[in-house]
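Narrative of activities, Objective 1.

The group set out to show that a structural description can be obtained from nothing but a protein's sequence at a throughput compatible with the screening campaign. Below is one input-output pair from the validation batch, recorded exactly as produced.
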Amino acid sequence: MRPPARACRNRSAAGGAAALLWLLGLLGASALAAATLVVNVQTPDGRALPGAVVTVRSLDAPGRHATPVRAVMDQVNHSFAPDLLVIPVGSTVEFPNSDSVSHQIYSFSPAKRFQLPLYRGKHYPPVHFDQPGVITLGCNIHDEMLAYLLVTDAAWYGRTNTGGSFAADVPRGRYRVALWHPRLRDEETDLARELTVGEGDRAELTLRLSRSLQPAPLADRPHSWDY
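Output recorded for this entry:
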């Protein structure tokens, strides 16, 4: 039986409305299309600073943060590998010991206090990090072992490359950019900046330290943040 003409018109209208919504969705997605945000970090004399941690938070969507991850920080040759790890809040980190000797890992940092008693190999379950903050890691047996975990609630994060730059694709909008480094003398709040990523395909920000970095704590054992 052939459907009434009114039903056909209703179906046609519904189809047209769906197509219009689809088109509006495409236009909205285009309006929110990502742009590349580049953050350059420099020492007071204008040289590039590799290895610094950059975090980017949206001021338009302050509750947005990165998805938790499962990370690994190993122990090799009396060192942590890697010796600086940036992870989102809610992530877990496994601490295997691939070294030829036993280690006893600890943290007294307020963001996460824990201890893994003397062990070799892979004896402990991953540690859960549910609070943002900087966590200093050491070994009760080997004082030369030092590492950092930065747990962040930012949506975008990373470390500057050898040229002192960090880049992320972000939706157009307003952002707060912050910087952290283990040897930083400047106050972190003094280095934080707010900017708007507008209509262009690229936005760029340069953060220059006002004070030189602190001396390396262990001169005979360089780390990834020692330059």
